[in-house]
Automatic annotation (TrEMBL):
It comes from the Bacteria. This is Nicotinate-nucleotide--dimethylbenzimidazole phosphoribosyltransferase. It comes from Henriciella algicola. GO terms for biological process: cobalamin biosynthetic process. The gene is cobT. Coiled coil: none annotated.
């Protein structure tokens, strides 16, 4: 529980800024959240890092995506060359990028921005059996925890790349929430009607292997991808080291759901960036009671939504730290 006196001082600091009370709307709530995480009435938000977690999925070969599995590795090369949507947004917004190889099949180019935390070259086909062993899951969680805890940036955006990972995220979230997987299946990279029907049928087969409801740890072992498990660990590690975690779209929200179940305290550090157009995202956000900052009709992942929310996070902190009060600026309060 946040300290009562601190919360009272914080609300007073926000309310005595030179503006009508409440006039900065949700930016005020955002500022309060950041101040609470940093335990400071002068929060600092100057550095942000994007980590893109990449891994392959055994399920991809079953035909759950509109794109072939090779695209995971090809897109990692594209990120390392600076050509992805996430790279462009990050450059525009002055955010550092690192790519984490959590288990991508094939050779990746040597590059200082590539962090290798691979356990295996992707998961087993989760339609037929567990995606990974308990030991692999725990290793991926520990890898992520170390990555999330490293660095001195104030905010962390976490993105992902892994062909087939909307399937993995749908299954993980459905099992944790006790929902039928059908409720969380969407078009991912752009399946047509026939492709979507096939994906639903395959994921229903996958879901039938296990009980309707699973713990986060069990759901990750059965259906996770190494990028989703590593991201879950990173969200916990980042929260534990006082960073704000800017949660991206559908896949990152599935990781956030796992993180909340594994380490409930980390939730206070999470800011939900955007509502993805991927069909299941709104359902998971609803279950989390989350109301994201942006709704841009995006459905890409990579951390693109999280990056676009970074300027809002930064501006909210600056508002609290830099804005004058009625007293300090000599402005009259309400009549
Ligand atoms: C060129 C390309 C770039 C991407 N960047 C992110 N994703 C996104 O799409 C994938 C998930 O969708 P599905 O489950 O349908 O495979 C993930 O890799 C995700 O990050 C991409 C997908 C493609 C094709
Ligand atoms: O919202 C996302 O994260 C998403 C949606 C579709 C494909 N890849 C990612």
């Amino acid at each position: 529980m946040p300290n009562e006196d601190f919360q009272t001082s914080l609300q007073r600091a926000i309310d005595t800024k030179t503006k009508p009370v409440g006039s900065l709307g949700r930016m005020e709530k955002l500022a309060a959240r950041i101040a609470t995480v940093q335990n400071s009435l002068q929060p600092v938000m100057s550095r942000c890092q994007l980590s893109i977690f990449a891994a392959d999925h055994g399920m991809a070969v079953a035909g759950v995506s509109a794109f072939p599995q090779d695209v995971t590795r090809q897109m990692v090369a594209n990120f390392l060359a600076g050509g992805g949507a996430a790279n462009v947004f990050a450059r525009t917004l002055d955010v550092d990028v690192q790519v984490v190889d959590c288990g991508v099949a094939g050779e990746l180019m040597a590059n200082p921005a590539l962090v290798s935390r691979r356990i295996d070259a992707g998961t087993a086909n989760a339609i037929a059996g567990p995606a990974m062993t308990a030991a692999e899951r725990d290793q991926a969680l520990a890898n992520g925890h170390a990555i999330g805890g490293a660095g001195d940036h104030h905010a962390a955006c976490f993105g992902e790349m892994g062909i087939g990972n909307t399937s993995s995220a749908s299954l993980v979230a459905a099992k944790i929430l006790g929902l039928p997987v059908e409720a969380l299946v969407g078009r991912g990279t752009g399946l047509d009607g026939e492709g979507l029907r096939k994906k639903k049928a395959l994921l229903e087969d996958a879901a039938e292997r296990t009980p309707d409801k699973l713990s986060a740890a069990a759901a990750l072992m059965e259906y996770g991808g190494f990028e989703i498990v590593t991201m879950t660990g990173a969200m916990i590690g980042a929260a534990e080291t006082g960073k704000i975690v800017i949660v991206d779209g559908f896949i990152a929200t599935a990781a956030a759901l796992c993180a909340r179940h594994i380490a409930p305290d980390c939730e206070r550090s999470f800011i939900y960036a955007h509502r993805s157009a991927e069909a299941g995202h709104s359902r998971v956000l609803y279950a989390l009671g989350a109301d994201p900052l942006l709704d841009l009709d995006m459905r890409l992942g990579e951390g693109t939504g999280a990056l676009l929310a970074w300027p809002l996070v930064k501006a909210a902190a600056a508002m609290l730290r830099e804005m004058a009060s009625f007293d300090s600026a000599g402005v009259s309060g309400p009549a």
